Amino acid sequence: MKIVKFSLNRPVSIFMFTVAAVIFGFIAYSKLNLNLLPKISYPTLTIKTEYPGTAPSEIENIISKPIEETCGVVDNVIRISSVSRAELSEVMVEFAWHTNMDFATLKLREKLDLLRLPIGATKPVILRYDPNQEPIMKLGLTGDTDLGHIRYIAEREVKQALESIEGVAACSISGGLEDEIHIDINEQKLSLLNIPITTVANRLAQENVNLSAGILKQKDSQFLVRTVNQFKTVEEIKDIIIERRGDVQITLG
């Protein structure tokens, strides 16, 4: 009742207060920043560790649990969960929203560096989810042709057309079928020749490389040097020399 009485007795003051509130509200509204896709940093880190040749139960006991205990002493941690698969451990660490994630990542790395894992386990990798890397549009392609041809169209035509549009940063393709070459090994012949299958795999890896060899500087020019030795045809794969025994060359084909 006092507020009503005060308003009736001082109408000019109430009017001026209302006008001031409207003016300041309009000024504040005009200065509000509008962002269609605001930058958000989720306070979540994922720790990925690989241990080849181990079962999920072993991964949980000797990898996931020690990492969970180590993460529990870091400040602002509110929840820890893990997924243990064959040869792979993933530990998810959730922090409070006000946490500085750069500092939290640094502290977590310091704790993990002190953790002793079994010999053979890889060094834990800290992954940070960035929603800004998520695509804002997804397109699906269908057709009467096979999946390999659809992927070829997506790579050669659709992707190039989309990336040429102003404002598009990047396009990525998933799905479909990619061209692959399968090599069927005759184990009986390998056994007769006394050649381990690892030798065949190593020779394939050695002959199919594309590596950087550095930069060659000459006066005011610089040249990028690369060792380009990738397979282009099936015949090149067949002609790979697996072993030399005297004057005899044992090829893959």
Provide the fold topology:
Elements: H1 2-9, H2 11-30, E1 44-50, H3 56-71, E2 77-85, E3 88-95, H4 101-113, E4 125-128, H5 147-163, H6 187-193, H7 197-207, E5 209-218, E6 221-229, H8 234-238, E7 241-245, E8 248-251
Antiparallel strand pairs: 1-3, 1-4, 2-3, 5-6, 7-8
Secondary-structure element string: HHEHEEHEHHHEEHEE
CATH superfamily of the largest domain: Multidrug efflux transporter AcrB pore domain
**Number of DSSP strand runs:** 8
Given the C-alpha coordinates, what overall shape results? elongated
Low-confidence segments: none
Taking all residues together, what is the mean pLDDT?
A: 83
Share of helical residues: 25-40%
CATH fold field value of the largest domain: Alpha-Beta Plaits
Query: Total number of helical segments?
Result: 8
Strand content: 15-25%
Structural class label: alpha+beta
Q: Roughly how many Å apart are the termini?
A: 100 Å
Task: Give the strand order, joined by hyphens, for the main sheet.
Answer: 2-3-1-4
Q: What does the largest sheet look like?
A: 4 strands, antiparallel
Total individual domains = 3
Gyration radius (Cα, Å) is: 31 Å
CATH structural architecture of the largest domain = 2-Layer Sandwich
What are its keywords?
3 domains; Alpha-Beta Plaits; 4-stranded antiparallel sheet; 253 residues; 22% strand; 8 helices; alpha+beta
